[in-house]
Write a structure and sequence with these properties.
Elements (H helix, E strand, L loop, with lengths): L1 E5 L4 H13 L3 E6 L18 E5 L5 H9 L3 E4 L6 H6 L2 H21 L2 E7 L25 H20 L2 E7 L2 E2 L8 H10 L5 E3 L5 E3 L1 E2 H14 L5 E4 L4 E3 H11 L8 E3 L14 H6 L9 H14 L1 H17 L3
Parallel strand pairs: 1-2, 1-4, 2-3, 4-5, 5-6, 6-11, 7-10, 8-13
Antiparallel strand pairs: 9-12
Helix pairs in contact: 1-7, 2-4, 4-5, 6-8, 6-10
Bound molecules: nicotinamide-adenine-dinucleotide (NAD) and thymidine-5'-diphospho-beta-D-xylose.
The site of nicotinamide-adenine-dinucleotide has 30 residues, from helix 1, helix 4 and strand 5.
GO biological process, one term: nucleotide-sugar metabolic process
Catalytic activity: dTDP-alpha-D-glucose = dTDP-4-dehydro-6-deoxy-alpha-D-glucose + H2O
Keywords: Lyase, NAD
Length: 331
């Protein structure tokens, strides 16, 4: 298949492209605007006969129409993705996440393409810490932040285009990813690179908030499975049973990096901070026969720490500006 992958220079998109080129015969064209979050170095060394890169905006209808027209399937990762940024300036989230998704699904319906929409568990809001429940495909939408509300809006557009226009689409909502090529603004890379730079890790509030961690390669294998076997119009939740609170994750990073486990600072909490996310991925596992490969979070985290140690030239250009922005917020 000829895949058009939007947002392929970002964290999860670039991991997907490396994974898809290694595990399938697909050809990949990337459409990416190269915002602050996109990095072409994440796509170095890919086979030039099976991969090409186009710099452009997913709200550019003419460009999108041209690229969708020559693809068999679209895998849509491009988004403004960071909650903290969405609290400072929501506007780009509306443009890219809502209008960008609209532009892509209009082109996909005109050309009759297979479309896979990448989304997040944050559309469901949050769970109490002591609630045994987990999110399922039928949990009502209840997003908390400007980021998650624009992702929820984009999911609803895709659902409506399936029902009204027969868009050949599937949707996946995945939990928090970790792995290589993640921007240093995000929790795990921020703390790893802080420790490398001799800065104490920064924990929002008390650090009781729980995230359900999955390795980016497991997200990629799930998306390929859905592309191959998913039923049109269906939503699949992707998760690997990786619930951990933030305090435990910071302590693991510090211990793994040879520091005292309490060598971190508590900083100003995120406004509206979601308490807990947890995914029940039974549907994907039983109906499409998918299973995650990374069962050991500590081993995956250790490999991720090593990647940031070995690839300082990849993240260092963003580090100082990212920390300066956090400092303004007392974080
Ligand atoms: P990211 O911020 O690392 O990458 C986003 C990419 O999209 C960047 O390369 C950026 O340049 C590109 N982009 C942004 N606006 C664009 C536009 N208007 N036109 C074209 N390209 C544009 O994000 P990520 O963490 O890799 O997330 C990718 C997708 O996965 C998002 O849709 C996100 O909602 C979803 N998701 C992320 C996670 C997670 O843990 N990071 C979990 C579940 C779902
Ligand atoms: O310095 C920090 N200290 C801290 O305690 C940062 C950056 C974060 N945190 C906390 C906030 C969250 O509880 O860590 C947790 C994870 O934070 P982020 O990495 O910002 O991720 P989150 O807000 O959970 O959202 C992520 O997962 C779902 C992605 O950024 C989203 O794109 C995805 O949809």
């Amino acid at each position: 298949m000829r895949l058009l992958v939007t947002g392929g220079a970002g964290f999860i998109g670039s991991n997907f492209i490396h994974y898809a080129l290694a595990h399938t015969d697909h050809h990949v064209t990337v459409l990416d605007k190269l915002t602050y979050a996109g990095n072409l170095e994440s796509l170095m060394g890919l086979p030039s006969d099976r991969f090409n890169f186009v710099q452009g905006d997913i709200v550019d209808a003419a460009l999108v129409d041209e690229l969708v027209g020559v693809a068999d399937a679209v895998v849509h990762y491009a988004a403004e993705s960071h909650n903290d940024n969405s609290l400072r300036d929501p506007r780009p989230f509306l443009d890219t996440n809502i209008v960008g998704t609209y532009t892509l699904i209009e082109a996909a319906r005109r050309h009759g393409n297979r479309f896979h929409h990448i989304s997040t568990d944050e559309v469901y809001g949050d769970l109490e810490l002591d609630d045994p429940a987990r999110f399922t495909e039928s949990t009502p939408y209840n997003p908390s932040s400007p980021y998650s509300s624009t992702k929820a809006g984009s999911d609803l557009l895709v659902r409506a285009w399936v029902r009204s226009f027969d868009l050949q689409a599937t949707i996946s909502n995945c939990s928090n990813n970790y792995g290589p090529y993640q921007h240093v603004e995000k929790f795990i890379p921020r703390q790893i690179t802080n420790v490398i730079d001799g800065i104490r890790p920064k924990l929002y509030g008390e650090g009781k908030n729980v995230r359900d961690w999955i390795h980016a390669d497991d997200h990629s294998s799930a998306v390929l499975t859905i592309l191959e076997k998913g039923l049109i119009g269906e939503t699949y939740l992707i998760g690997a049973d990786g619930e951990k609170n933030n305090k435990d994750v910071v302590e693991l990073i510090l211990t793994e990096m040879g520091q005292q486990p309490d060598a971190y600072d508590h900083v100003v909490d995120r406004p509206g901070h979601d308490l807990r996310y947890a995914i029940d991925s039974t549907k994907l596992r039983t109906e499409l026969d998918w299973a995650p490969q990374y069962q050991d979070f500590e081993a995956g985290l250790g490999a991720t720490i090593q990647w940031y140690r070995d690839n300082q030239s990849w993240w260092r250009p963003q580090k100082a500006a990212t920390e300066a922005k956090y400092k303004e917020q007392g974080q």
